[in-house]
Design brief:
This protein has about 240 residues and is of the alpha/beta class. The chain has one domain: Alpha-Beta Complex (Spore Coat Polysaccharide Biosynthesis Protein SpsA, Chain A), CATH 3.90.550.10. The chain is built from 5 helices and 13 strands. The protein has a 7-stranded mixed β-sheet with strand order 5-4-1-6-11-8-12. It has a two-stranded antiparallel sheet with strand order 2-3.
């Protein structure tokens, strides 16, 4: 099975570190986050990995090379212009069977094989791994009646949302909805699929997941990995 890892972003939210280092090479414990992902993929039987690269791509290629040191085959797909999160898939040849796509900056203990099995069992065109997150608003929220009359006031509320984990499973036909070499993000792709009646599923996961986009999240992931490394990588 093939997996595409989105590794071409500039990681602006982690600046200034990502000015000299691509975000997937940011260290988590004793290895880059992308190395963690690749080792997880190998653990779950994914042996063909395509990295979509752009920003500081030479550093990624120098570090990971052809993937043989991890027991996988790594290929590179370069985007000359930013194409969003879904757009880079239009440049990749050979995605002719069920494939996985993941952001290159996700730390999770997700069982990838269970996600893939769920996708196939549901007969989905696309499956989005999702996680429940509580969002706290540190301000008083005013509810209006459609005009300027106040009908409610909530002090520092919190709301629960199911959010995308940045991990997806797709059938090859999703590529029919991605214009060649044009900018497209996953939310827009999902809306396209829904408009034409394709089956899109959400896979709920309540285990460990952390996005590394912000400095505080990155710091938390660094601290967590020391404890969770055996669970994430399946090693003692």
């Amino acid at each position: 099975m093939k997996a595409v890892v989105l590794a071409g972003g500039k990681g602006t939210r982690l600046a200034p570190y990502t000015q000299i280092l691509p975000k997937p090479l940011m260290p988590i414990g004793d290895m880059p986050i992308l190395e963690v992902l690749i080792k997880q993929m190998k653990r779950y039987g994914i042996t063909d990995v395509i990295l979509t690269v752009g920003h500081l791509s030479h550093l990624l290629q120098s570090y990971f090379q052809d993937g043989s040191q991890y027991g996988v085959n790594i290929h590179y797909s370069r985007e000359e212009e930013p194409l969003g999160t879904a757009g880079p898939l239009s440049l990749i040849e050979g995605l002719d069977e069920t494939f996985m796509v993941t952001n290159g900056d996700v730390l999770t203990a997700l069982d990838m094989s269970e996600l893939i099995d769920f996708h196939r069992k549901e007969g989905a065109c696309a499956t989005i791994a999702m996680h429940e997150r509580e969002v706290k608003i540190d301000l008083g929220v005013i509810r209006l009646n459609g005009g300027l009359e106040v009908e409610g006031y909530i002090e520092k509320p919190s709301m629960d949302y199911m959010v995308s984990m940045g991990i997806y499973v797709f059938e090859p036909r999703v590529l029919d909805y991605i214009p060649k070499a044009q900018y497209l993000d996953f939310p827009d792709l999902v809306l396209k699929l829904l408009e034409v009646g394709e089956r899109v599923m959400g896979y709920p996961y309540d285990g460990y997941w952390q996005d590394l986009g912000r400095p505080d999240d990155y710091q938390q992931a660094w601290e967590d990995f020391g404890t969770l490394k055996p669970e994430i990588l399946g090693v003692a």
